[in-house]
Amino acid sequence: MVRFKHRYITVEIASPLVPDSKPLNLRPKIFHDSVLNKIQQLHGDFGIASIRNGFLTKYCNETTRIALIRARHGPHRFVTSSLPFITKIDKLDVRLNTLHVGATLKHSFKFIQKHQRAYLDSMWSKLKTDEERKQLEMAVMDFKKTDVAINIENIA
């Protein structure tokens, strides 16, 4: 039995047209397909074939604009080299910044939690009521925003 190593790539999605206080209308499936299309465009069939097995969008939070991608170790370099070239996701102008590349999901989520806590602290000063603050905290610290359907399709 062979053990496959994975890398988890934490990506920040920056959109200059949408203010920071509003969430992006971004589904993990659309994000996933945009990354695959750019890898196809830049690295061709070899790039797609090397990352296809084990490539998943694990997490996508529209409020904090953070996404987590899983790729196999080695071909993850195709993914990380393609991310800066993605300028459009669906009809939205974006810029993708790679924040962290980790070996385990646990450390990637620790990094995301620390990053989102800093985001939450900066946004709290702009909110007026405690109700708005609680809603923002629930949205920011929600780690269950994963589209399971696309992951099941890609595992099989």
TrEMBL record:
Gene3D superfamilies: Ribonuclease P, Pop5 subunit (3.30.70.3250). Belongs to the eukaryotic/archaeal RNase P protein component 2 family. InterPro entries: Pop5/Rpp14/Rnp2-like, RNase_P/MRP_POP5, Rnp2-like_sf. SUPFAM superfamilies: Rnp2-like. Keywords: Nucleus, rRNA processing, tRNA processing. It is found in: Nucleus, Nucleolus. This is Ribonuclease P/MRP protein subunit POP5. Component of ribonuclease P, a protein complex that generates mature tRNA molecules by cleaving their 5'-ends.
